[in-house]
C-alpha cells in the first residue's frame, strides 16, 4: 500500500458520492491502486466491509453537529447523548476518529456565545470518547459562523477542553485560503492532530491583488471549489510543503493516516477524472 516517504503514513481517500457509493467496487479499486484507508462519512454500517477487505477506516463523521452547538441546553444534552451512543457503537466496530466542523446552529449569535456551547458539549462528550478509545477530529472549514478554524479558537478550545480526546483533523487547504501559515499552525498544534486530509490550495497571486481576501469579485466567476483569489487542489498543485508537514507529524509521533479529500476543478465531476485525481494526489504524497 502507498505510504508517505517521510513518516510512512498510510494513504487513502475520503469517500464522496456517485461511483464511490458502490462500496465493494470502491474497496476493490482502492486496493488495486494501493490506497489503504477510507474515510466513510456517516456510513458506519460500512466499517466491517472496509476492515474485512484489509483496509483501514480513517474517520467517520460524528452523527450530528449543529445541535451540539445549540443555545437550547436540552437540545445540546440530547445531542450529546445521541453522539455518545454513536461513538460507543462505532468504536466497537473499529472506527476511532470522529470528524466534524464546528458550525453553530445559529451563526448570527455572538461568536463567544456559540464557542461556550461548543466547549460545553465537547467536555460532555469526552468521557464517552475516552471510554471507547475514540477522538473527535475537528476540521477548520471556515463556513458561516464556524469556530475552530484559526489558531485563536483552536487554542481557546484546547484550553477549555483538556482531554486529548478532543483533537484536530489537519487540512492545510483551509489554513492557506485564510492566509494562515499551515506549518506554523502544525508546529503549535501537532500534538492534537488525530487525522489528516490530503488537500491543498492554490493562491492566485494576480487575483489576490485584484480582489483581496475579504470581498467577493463583482465580475469574475469563481472557480469550482474556490473563490476569486484561491482554489482547492489535489496535493502537489497547491502551496503546502508536504515534506515538511510529514516531518513535523513524524517528530510528534503522529500515528494516523493521510486521506485525500478530492475537491479540485481539474478532476471532479466524472468517475474517470476523480479516480485520476485520487491516484495523482496519492502518488505525489508518496514521494514526500
Describe this structure in words.
The mean pLDDT is 97. Strands 3-2-1-12-8-7-6-5-4 form a nine-stranded parallel sheet. Strands 9-11-10 form a three-stranded antiparallel sheet. It is an alpha/beta fold and 288 residues long. 40% of the residues lie in helices and 15% in strands. α3 packs parallel to α4. The protein contains ten helices and twelve strands. The chain starts with 10 loop residues before the first strand and ends with a helix.
Side by side, the strands of the main sheet go 3-2-1-12-8-7-6-5-4
String of helices and strands:
EHEHEEHEHEHEHHEEHEEHEH
Name the poorly predicted regions: none
Distance from first to last alpha carbon: 15 Å
Percent range of helical residues: 40-55%
Biggest sheet, open or closed, and with what strands and sense?
Answer: 9 strands, parallel
Structural class, by secondary structure, is alpha/beta
Query: What share of the residues does DSSP label as strand, in percent?
Result: 5-15%
Cα-atom radius of gyration: 18 Å
Number of helices: 10
- The dominant shape is globular
DSSP summary, beta strand count: 12
Instruction: Summarize model confidence as the mean pLDDT.
Output: 97
Defining traits:
288 residues; alpha/beta; 9-stranded parallel β-sheet; 3-stranded antiparallel β-sheet; 10 helices; globular
Which helices and strands occur, and which strands form pairs?
Layout: E1 11-14, H1 23-32, E2 37-39, H2 47-52, E3 56-57, E4 60-61, H3 73-93, E5 97-100, H4 111-132, E6 135-138, H5 151-160, E7 166-170, H6 172-178, H7 182-189, E8 193-198, E9 200-203, H8 205-211, E10 226-227, E11 230-233, H9 242-251, E12 258-260, H10 271-285
Parallel strand pairs: 1-2, 1-12, 2-3, 4-5, 5-6, 6-7, 7-8, 8-12
Antiparallel strand pairs: 9-11, 10-11
Helix pairs in contact: 3-4, 7-9
